[in-house]
Predict the structure.
Amino acid sequence: MSERFVEQVGQLARRSVVRTARQPANIVFPLVFPLLLLAVNSSGLQSATHLPGFPTDSYLAFALAVPFMQGALFATMNAGTDLARDIQTGFLNRLALTPMRGVALLAGQLGGVMAMTAVQAAVWIIAGLILGVHFAAGAGGIAVIFAFSLLIGLGFGALGAFLALRTGSGEAVQGMFPVFFVFLFISSMAMPRNLIEIKWFQTAATLNPVSYLIEGIRSLIVIGWDAEALALGFGTALLIAAIAVSLATFSLRTRLTRS
Amino acid sequence: MRTLSVAEGVAWRVLHNVFTNPSLLIPSLIFPLFFFTAFAGGLSRIDQVPGFDYPPGYTAFQFVFVLLQSAAFGGVFTGFGIARDFESGFGRRLLLSAPHRTGIVLGYVAAALVRWLLTAAVVTAVALLVGMQVGGGAVDLVGLYTLAVCLNLAATLWAAGIALRLRTMQAGPVMQMPVFLLLFFAPVYVPLALLQGWIHNVATYNPLTRVLEAGRGFLAGSPTEVGLAFAVTAALVVGFSMWALRGLRSAERAG
């Protein structure tokens, strides 16, 4: 990796972070909204922990994994919308005239998204600790959660970039928000899969990769070191990241050729 | 009479825009169904929590929340439209051309109601198709839907007041967030008695808790807190009517 390439990536990642930082709504909303939902849901559903077979007596601990996924959802939207704006305003075309490598644009954009994901993950973990959540896997588990959330941020950020590069429209990227929301809600987000009573919902949650991402993080908070949950979680996250980055890279080539 | 003709014109335009534009129509239909599926489907085992006592079952329990939520958010979505009209300059032209400007607010309110009636019909049909049990009779159901209509009116007037004062789409979160908080600080997932900690205290004093409990009572056929629920919704409609009309005056002053 040449020094020049690293510099290009650094410059574009910095631009991505600064652009996000200059729009308070892009920082505050993705941080406040998941915390608010966590507060409401963890209190409202605390009595669910009385169900036989529920894995913990704290719904807050059970639900703490969810903000990580909501953060990823916002990462997708922000990355996609920002890149789509670059396409719509002609920034990408102007960049194509410079010696900058296309992949540096993608890496820089995703670097910015991951920086935001790191801030979010730190906030969720600190909020959990302040609210008295006991992380069953200890300090090592917290470090793994942090790394896991960065991997999820990379995958979903690349997915947003892919959508932006394919459509070239911020509105089209925003229009995908309900679709991602469906994936989040039809998952084991609110109830362990074995306790979901409605069969079709349980099947959909089992087929939904988001369930495994949530369960990977949740296992470190609620259970401890669960090799199966972690393997499924990391495997799913790696697969999503690999597919999304490949698709985004391919679409970037096509987009730059079109330009 | 002139007020009514202005209201009719405004309402027709809003409804024409909504029903001919899928990006405006579909979210207001899809989101309530989506919440209904996620809550009633994913959390159905909650009815086995010790102390949960709602005879028609968890699907009906969540249906009432989703119906009232769709009524409130139907009003908020119309508020977005008002803000868009004023941001684009159409609202100013409307102020210039309307002989009786109160009709403008009335028109938006009527459009919000018609728009929500379609959502309510779809949500109800889906709930019945998936086997929702209804314990209440015709009078009870009229009570439930009347409460929802009142909530729709109150939410539209609230959002209209904001939209007419700020006259920008950026006011969206200001319209949406308080409604969202009021709804979710009520007993959404379990009855009030099963809530614990701070949320129990907040829900106890949240006026929408009375509306939600009364709605669930109607659907179960055992009405409860009816007087209080209607008093709350009537107070909200009257209070936010004044709020919206003062917002109209604010828009007039801004020119």
About this structure: The mean pLDDT of chain B is 92. Residues 28 and 124 of chain B are 14 Å apart (CA to CA). The first helix of chain B runs from residue 2 to 19. Chain B has ten helices and no strands.
